[in-house]
Amino acid sequence: MKQSPKTSTLEGNKRLRVPLAVFVLALAVRLIYLLQASKSPVFLFPLVDSSSYDGAAWQLVSQGTMHVQFFWQAFFYPMFLAVVYEIAGHSIITVKLIQAVLGSAVCVLVYLLGMRVFGRRTAITAAVVTALYGPLVFFDGELLAAGWASLWAVSLILLFLGARRGRSPWIFLLLGICGGMSIITHATFLPFFAAACVWLAVVMRRGARGPRNAGGGPRKPIARGPRNVVFSGAVVLTGFLLVVIPVSIQSYRVTGIFSPLAETGPLNLYIGNNADRSEIMAIRPGGEWEDVMLMPVREGLRTKREAQQYFLRRVVNYIAERPGRFATGLARKTVHFFSTRELPNNTDEYSNRAYSPLYAALTWKARNFGFPFGALLPFAVLGMIRCRRSIPGVV
């Protein structure tokens, strides 16, 4: 029996209620935070990385020249700022408002992901946690790429889950485009995107069955999708190249390096993997930082490519000569990765607690315990163990 248009409309409205409520909650939290954080003396004065992004973007808009800073770090974020500045003028508050909306959209995507993998209850819980997750609220209010990285992360997983059913070539094209956008936002997406593409090819090739649902029910069959897996891969690659090739060409024009990745990649790799890692990590912008950056110059190297190769050689030599110390360093960084406290670097997530009572309630630390990650981590581990058969391989 067919449903009447009125019944279909009512059911459609019911389906929209939860994601709409999630969006409103997340946006309200972010707007209240921005209002309270505006009391900070640096609210409209970007510092360190934020200042570099802001300066490069405004130079492009005001002078029509693209600074090397566009490629010193990832390309996407300063270009995003330049687009906003071109439309709204040099308005930092406009950027922060756009990012508040963006962060709220991420919460809705988390809800959709939860619905697809686990079900309504888990989806709502995850979306609310994301909406109230203090560090995300903080970074949505900074001139940094973290909010966009969150968007690409959830979007990529949703697209991979949709592409494994292979119903339309357009989803493969969109997947490639999203993969390219994620990589020019943060290069750390590259290994994930490559591995997830392999997973997708294997699933499509085998015509695998889907994961069990959250209640332990039977596996649902996954459609094989396009018969030619090579064709689907070519479509993904096309979308990916549509993003990274123009960025690489522009990088070559500005820096002489044909690459979509940030110029600082080898330098950052060296900073995290050397005999004096702790001391170098503690360096702040200034003379000491300049000394590190000028290490290739003191060796007689002049081009940017030579500087990148210099730092890569230093890392390779360090691993080869001190494998034990390298392994110990990896172990320490792994422990830091699971630290419940937010670790400060160029930004300190706890600094704005003095200006925003809401943020102070959402993000705090007591000795070695940090909230909210300290509360989230054990539930995440338990959930991964209990629902291990429900979680798709791409996750």
Q: Kindly estimate the percentage of residues that lie in beta strands according to DSSP.
A: under 5%
Helix count, DSSP H or I runs of 4 or more residues: 19
Kindly report the average pLDDT value: 88
Shape: globular
Rounded Rg:
23 Å
Please bin the fraction of helical residues. Answer: 55-70%
Order of the strands making up the biggest sheet: 1-2
Q: H/E order of the elements?
A: HHHHHHHHHHHHHHHHHHEEH
Structural class: mainly alpha
What is the CA–CA distance across the termini?
A: 38 Å
Which segments are poorly predicted (pLDDT under 50) over 5 or more consecutive residues?
A: none
Number of strands: 2
Largest sheet: 2 strands, antiparallel
What does this protein structure show overall?
This protein is mainly α. Helix content is 67%, strand content 2%. The protein contains 19 helices and two strands. The protein has helices at 5-37, 49-63, 69-72, 76-88, 92-117, 120-131, 134-140, 146-163, 169-183, 189-206, 229-255, 265-272, 277-281, 287-293, 295-298, 304-321, 323-337, 357-362, 373-386; strands spanning 364-366, 369-371. It has a two-stranded antiparallel ribbon with strand order 1-2.
